[in-house]
Specification:
By secondary structure, the chain is α/β, with parallel strands linked by helices. It contains four helices and six strands. The protein has a six-stranded mixed sheet with strand order 1-6-5-4-3-2, covered by helices on one side. The protein starts with 6 loop residues before the first strand and ends with a helix.
């Protein structure tokens, strides 16, 4: 079996301020002041909100393909102001990368590695988005409105 490889979704330079290699502890074992925690599908991400200042990385588990609660957990954490690394871990595929970015994930550690060139091409395939999300992408309708206002 091939070893899984971390794929970064952020395009900023990797540095030690957010890249965190220590193992993440399960939420039920987390103690205040810890720096890395792992959320499973049944865990409530809101339990971490009082601890976001000390956390540097939150791993969110995707134990099977049909599991989507991790997308909501990431968005909750981003909207609460978490600026550290959110890492998707588990059964993940390249066709999910765009949705992971929109939900606020920074990195993916898939159970089975995928080709980095295919992943980059997948992320570049659709340059516009149609609604607001946890990322900073501006919806195409807003871009159209701005162009129309600028043309007046």
């Amino acid at each position: 079996m091939a070893e899984s490889t971390l794929f970064r979704l952020r395009d900023d330079p990797q540095d030690s301020s957010w890249a965190h290699g220590d193992p993440a502890v399960p939420l039920d074992a987390y103690q205040a002041g810890g720096t890395a925690v792992r959320l499973e599908p049944g865990d409530d991400a809101r339990a971490l909100i009082p601890h976001l200042a000390s956390l540097r990385r939150i791993d969110i588990a995707f134990p099977k393909f049909r599991e989507g609660r991790g997308f909501s957990a990431a968005r909750i954490l981003r909207e609460a102001g978490f600026a550290g690394e959110i890492r998707a871990v588990g059964v993940l595929y390249v066709d999910q990368l765009g949705f992971l970015v929109r939900a606020g994930f920074d990195a993916v550690l898939p159970e089975k590695p995928f080709d980095a060139d295919v992943a980059r091409a997948t992320l570049a395939r659709f340059p516009h988005v149609y609604m607001k999300a946890a990322d900073t992408a501006r919806p195409v309708w807003l871009l159209r409105e701005e162009r129309a206002l600028a043309a007046r």
